[in-house]
Design brief:
The protein has eleven helices and 27 strands. The protein has 524 residues and is of the alpha+beta class. Strand 22 and strand 23 form a beta hairpin. Helix 5 packs antiparallel against helix 6.
């Protein structure tokens, strides 16, 4: 037995060696030959490889993380999906509904100039001395009627208030005017009678001359009374009516002012009154004119009558009520012309040189107003009117002013009265963009056209139903536009998405995370 046992121990070593060699041969045959494929053992093993996996909680997906566009194995190889020219990892397809939901808009790429701006906080403001016109009472009296409403748009010459006169000076001036008119009529009749008698020699010529002097004095008094009534607020037509009807004016109508081309207010006493009254003989009149000319030669020569312009006013204030007693010079209301207003900017001291240069060069400024839709409204073609001469001691800001042409955004007629709303309103906040530099040969796109991911910047180029993500180099940017380097990544004429780039980037990232596993939720 001991010999058999020894023999088996000696045999065990060679047997184990042969068995190990056989195993090595089999493993090598599977690893380095095509016998497994010929025998069909690989497919069976791959399919068996899925067994035992738990897919119920995001189990392993053999295809996850594989990029099939760069030489990786694609189970769908050989199938035509209609995606020629697309890199699936950088392309996304959008339906018509998706475009509508994103409010996606596109535009053609073009190469041009990019202007760099500094942005300054500002606000819409009145134009001092131009926007508002105060309506004051020319005389002491009582408000009988108010013919306008606050917020109403009206034109020059529109009746505003009716005032019942209680002004003692005007009443006395009218009485003197009427008395002088009566005395002038008597003198004219007496001169006519004496002229016929003087021709026969029955009356001395000295008597006739005395009457003519009295007539000239009355005419001078009438001229002075007329000027006084015009300065009190009566119009030329009202003075003529007093002369014709020989009745006192009891009510005065206050009208919306007429403007000249230089924006000054028209007044009848300055431009339409006549200081000359008819005379029976030309000699006394010529003497009077000569004396006036000598006196006027010491004064500045009269200016030509300015042309009138059509002006529209908005009633912004009504400071009186019907039946209220008012004094001469008291403010009754305010009319405003918002057609031309100002933007008041507040720049930092360091921006003073940029403002001076923009003003001297006549550079075009921009203004940005935030809108309800979220997309900023851009106002272009603005110019600096003037730059302030003092820096605010508290805010340390340098004020400057930009001209802004306004427009009516809403108009409604109620009861024959027109009510309007202007687009730009005093107090409205905005940003003024002052150009400081620029460069050419750049692709300028809206800020919403560029998506960001870390240091990378992307635009989305339209390609049929797809949008392809293209990496670009940004040269400069501001709150509205981005300048992209013209390096061939994006070509002029290509159509790119100019809105919703961020949403497209997020959708593409979600897509690259892989499709939903059909075995999700199943436990194998």
């Amino acid at each position: 037995m001991s010999k058999l046992k020894n023999w088996l121990q000696r045999l065990l070593g060679p047997v184990l060696t042969v068995f190990a060699i056989a195993i090595a041969i089999v493993v090598g045959g599977f690893a380095f030959t095509d016998f497994p494929q010929k025998l069909g053992l690989v497919a069976a093993s791959e399919e068996a490889g899925h067994e035992g996996h738990d897919h119920s909680e995001g189990g392993h997906d053999d295809h996850s993380g594989h990029d099939h566009g760069e030489g990786g194995h694609d189970d769908h190889e050989g199938h035509d999906h209609g995606h020629e020219g697309h890199d699936e990892s950088n392309s996304i397809e959008l339906s018509a509904q998706a475009r509508a939901n994103l409010k996606l808009t596109t535009q053609a790429v073009s190469v041009g100039q990019f202007n760099e701006y500094i942005e300054v906080p500002a606000a819409v403001a009145d134009w001092p001395g131009r926007t508002h016109v105060a309506i004051t009472s020319p005389l002491t009296g009582v408000i009988n009627a108010i013919n306008v409403s606050r917020g109403e748009l009206l034109k020059s010459g529109r009746p505003l208030f009716t005032l019942r006169l209680t002004h003692q000076d005007l009443v006395e001036t009218q009485e003197q005017f009427l008395a002088s008119l009566g005395e002038l009529d008597v003198e004219k009749r007496e001169i006519t009678r004496l002229t016929s008698l003087a021709d026969t020699g029955a009356v001395a010529g000295k008597t006739l001359l005395t009457r003519e002097y009295e007539r000239d004095k009355l005419m001078a008094n009438l001229g002075a009374a007329k000027q006084s009534m015009l300065l009190h607020g009566l119009t030329e037509s009202q003075v003529q009516r007093i002369e014709q009807t020989r009745e006192l004016i009891r009510e005065v109508t206050i009208f919306a002012p007429t403007l000249h081309a230089d924006r000054s207010l028209h007044h009848d006493s300055l431009h339409e009154s006549s200081t000359q009254w008819p005379s029976a003989k030309s000699q006394p009149q010529s003497l009077t004119v000569s004396a006036s000319a000598k006196f006027a030669s010491m004064q500045p020569p009269p200016t030509a009558h300015p042309a009138h312009i059509d002006a529209e006013f908005l009633v912004t204030q009504l400071d009186v009520s019907r039946g209220e007693s008012v004094q001469a010079g008291q403010k009754l209301g305010q009319l405003s012309d918002y057609s031309q207003i100002l933007i008041e900017g507040h720049a930092y001291q360091r921006d003073g040189l940029a403002l001076q240069k923009a003003s001297q060069d006549g550079a075009m400024l921009q203004a940005v107003i935030e809108s309800r839709e979220g997309k900023p409204e851009l106002i272009e073609g603005l110019k600096i009117v003037y730059i302030g001469n003092e820096v605010d001691r508290v805010s340390r800001a340098l004020p400057f002013y930009v001209s802004l042409t306004n427009e009516i955004e809403r108009s409604e007629e109620i009861g024959g009265q027109q009510y309007v709303s202007w687009r730009y309103k005093p107090g409205q906040r905005l940003q003024v963009r002052v150009p400081v530099a620029g460069f050419d040969n750049a692709i300028v796109v809206p800020k919403e056209a560029v998506a960001e991911e870390g240091p990378e910047r992307f635009v989305f180029v339209e390609n049929n139903e797809h949008f392809d993500r293209v990496a670009v180099e940004v040269l400069a940017s501001d709150s509205i536009s981005v300048a992209i380097k013209n390096d061939g990544q994006v070509w002029p004429g290509q159509s790119i998405a100019v809105s919703g780039a961020h949403q497209l980037q997020m959708a593409l990232k979600n897509k690259s995370g892989g499709a939903i596993d059909p075995h999700a939720g199943h436990n194998h």
